[in-house]
Amino acid sequence: MNAPASSPAHLPAYGPLIEHFLIDRGLVFLNHGSFGATPRGVLDAQQRLRVRVEADPVAWFGRDLEPQMDAARAQVAAFIDAPEDQIVPVVNATHAVSTIVASLGLRAGDELLTTTHEYNACNNALRQAEARWGAKVVAVPFPWPLRRTAEVTAALVAGVTPRTRLVLVSYITSASGIALPAAEMTRSLLTRAAEVGNTQLAVLIDGAHAPGYLDLSVRELAAAGASYFTGNLHKWACGPKGSAVLWVKPDLHDRTPPLVVSHGFNAGRTDRPRFRMMHDYVGSTDYTPWLCAPAAIAQVGAMAGSWVRVRARCGEMIDGALGVLKDRLGELGEGVGEIACPRRAVGQMAAVVLPNRASPAPFDPTSPFDPLYHALYNRWKIQVPVYGILRPDGTRGRVVRISAALYNAPEQYEYLAGALHAELVAELKAERLAERGA
C-alpha cells in the first residue's frame, strides 16, 4: 500500500496527546483498532533495552532475562486481573490461538465451534486443524444487525454437540466491533455441554482487543469456566508490536506447550513452574515487546489520569462521532450512518453502516480493498477500514469501522463524515449513469 503523495492543507488537527505518538500528521488516522500505536517514550525505552541486550547477549539471556520477564508478568497480570502464575507471553493473539488448537490432540470428527464474525487468521487455525486432523469447523451465523448480544450466545449454544471440542469466540469482534458478554457466554456454553453429555468442551476467549479496551478480568472468565484467554497488548494497551498474553487454566498447563519448544521443555528445575519455563523462553528472539508492555500501560494511563478515564474519553469521542455520522449520512438510506448493534456493545471502536455495495470480506486488515477505502485514503488522507460484514443469509453489508484513541480529536470525525458523504454520493451518481448507459 502506497502512502498518499501529498496531504490537503485543510486536514483537521489531532488532539494535544498526539505529541506522545509517531502517527503521521499528514493522515487522519482513525484505525487504532487494527495495530494500535505505541508512545514514543515506550519505543525509546525499548531501544535502550535492545542496546543492553547487544552489549552482552550471554549475560542477558542467561542471567537478566528471567527476572525481567517475571517483573513484567506481575504488572500485566495486575492490569488484566489475572493470576500471575497462570499467564505467559506470546507474540500476538493469533499465535496464541494456533498454540491452543495445536495442543488439543484433535481427531477426525471433533468439532470446532465459532461464529461467522470471528477473525480470519484465527479461523485459519481452525481450518488447518480441519485439513490436518479431520476435525470439523462449525461456524454459526452471527446475527447482524444485532438487537441483543444474547442472540450471539443463543446461536453458539445451539451449535454445541457431544462432539464439540473447542468454542472459539471473540470478546470483541474485529470487523463489526461488537463487545460480547464473554463470561456469561462461557457459562451458557458449558451448561449446554453438560446437557448433551459433552465433558470435553473447552472455551477459548479471543480477546485480541480486550486489554485496555475493557475493564478486563481474566479471573472472572476463569470463574465462569473458560479454559483459555488471549489478548493483545499492542492494540488498546499501546504496547510494542509483538506483545500479547495467554492465560490457560492450571489443569491444562502441562498439556499446552508453545508452538516453538525450547530448553524449558526438559529443564528439570523445581524453582519455577514448567508452564512458565516452556513459554517464557522460546529461543534467542526479541523479548523486549513483552518487557516494555508495562511501560505502555503506565504511560497511556497517565495521559488521562487513569485507565478508567482513558476508556471514558475514547467512549465519549465515539459517541460524538456516531452522532455526526448519523446526521451526515442518514439521508443516504435507511440505517445508513448507524451501528447495527446496541450502543452498549461498542466502546472505543464501532462499525457504522454504509449503503450496500459489493465489498470484500475483512480477511486482512492490511488490505481492505474496497474502492471506498482507497478513495478515502488517496483523496482525503483518511486511514480507516471499510469492510464487508457477513449477514446470516450469506450476503454482505458494508461498514466503515472507526476507532477513537487519546490522540484523536472530534474534528477528525466531522471531516470523515464529510468525506464519506461526498464519496457515497459520487458512488450513487456513477451507478445511475451506468444504469442509463446500460
Biggest beta-sheet profile = 7 strands, mixed
Q: What's the number of extended β-strand segments? A: 12
Helix content range of the residues, please? Answer: 40-55%
Distance, first to last CA = 33 Å
CATH architecture group name of the largest domain? 3-Layer(aba) Sandwich
Task: Give the helix tally.
Answer: 14
Side by side, the strands of the main sheet go: 2-8-7-6-5-3-4
Mean pLDDT: 94
Radius of gyration: 22 Å
Question: What this model shows, in words?
Answer:
- The chain is of the alpha/beta class and 438 residues long.
- It has two domains: 16-38 and 306-437, Alpha-Beta Complex (Aspartate Aminotransferase, domain 1); 45-298, 3-Layer(aba) Sandwich (Aspartate Aminotransferase, domain 2).
- It is 43% helix and 13% strand.
- The strands form three sheets. The chain has a seven-stranded mixed β-sheet with strand order 2-8-7-6-5-3-4, sandwiched between helices. A three-stranded antiparallel β-sheet has the order 9-12-11. Strands 1-10 form a two-stranded parallel ribbon.
- Helix 3 crosses helix 11 (288-304), helix 4 (93-103) runs parallel beside helix 5 and helix 7 (182-195) packs parallel to helix 9 (218-224).
- The longest helix is centred in the last third of the chain and has 28 residues, at 410-437.
- The model has no long low-confidence stretch (mean pLDDT 94).
Write the layout of secondary structure elements.
Blueprint: E1 28-29, H1 32-35, H2 40-55, H3 57-80, E2 87-90, H4 93-103, E3 111-115, H5 120-133, E4 136-140, H6 150-158, E5 164-170, H7 182-195, E6 202-206, H8 210-213, H9 218-224, E7 228-232, E8 244-248, H10 274-280, H11 288-304, H12 307-329, E9 349-354, H13 371-380, E10 382-383, E11 386-390, E12 396-403, H14 410-437
Parallel strand pairs: 1-10, 3-4, 3-5, 5-6, 6-7
Antiparallel strand pairs: 2-8, 7-8, 9-12, 11-12
Helix pairs in contact: 2-3, 2-11, 3-11, 4-5, 6-7, 7-9, 11-12, 12-14, 13-14
